[in-house]
């Protein structure tokens, strides 16, 4: 896979997670693209002990996500995750909020100023 394509996939995944807001809320940092097409990043402290999250694009155009501890051991693994499920999957496996507002609330809030 070409370098530009790998970087494009990683950027799309980053945006689907929520971009800067996601990074600020979760303490995510050290974002790196993967050779196979995906994104890996480090997150802040959490109750489940997850240190790294790896999100790869699979052959079904869905995501496979692995959650690693500090010893690089897989704690949890989710397969065939839709992009709409990224936040919930992340929250279930880390017990960290992935955004300031739940996704369903973001669409319902209407400030009539």
Report on the architecture of this protein.
This protein is α+β, with helices and mostly antiparallel strands and 113 residues long. The protein has one domain (3-108). It is 34% helix and 27% strand. The protein has helices at 3-17, 19-26, 86-94, 103-108; strands at 29-34, 38-42, 52-57, 63-68, 74-81. The protein has a five-stranded antiparallel beta sheet with strand order 1-2-3-4-5. Strand 3 (52-57) and strand 4 form a beta hairpin.
Short characterization:
The protein contains 4 helices and 5 strands, in the order H-H-E-E-E-E-E-H-H.
Mean of all residue-level pLDDT scores: 88
Low-confidence stretches: 105-111
* Major sheet: 5 strands, antiparallel
Fraction in beta strands: 25-35%
Q: Count helical runs.
A: 4
**Sequence of strands across the biggest β-sheet:** 1-2-3-4-5
The domain tally reads: 1
- End-to-end Cα distance, whole Å, is 49 Å
Q: Helices and strands in order, then pairings?
A:
Layout: H1 3-17, H2 19-26, E1 29-34, E2 38-42, E3 52-57, E4 63-68, E5 74-81, H3 86-94, H4 103-108
Keywords:
113 residues; alpha+beta; five-stranded antiparallel sheet; disordered C terminus
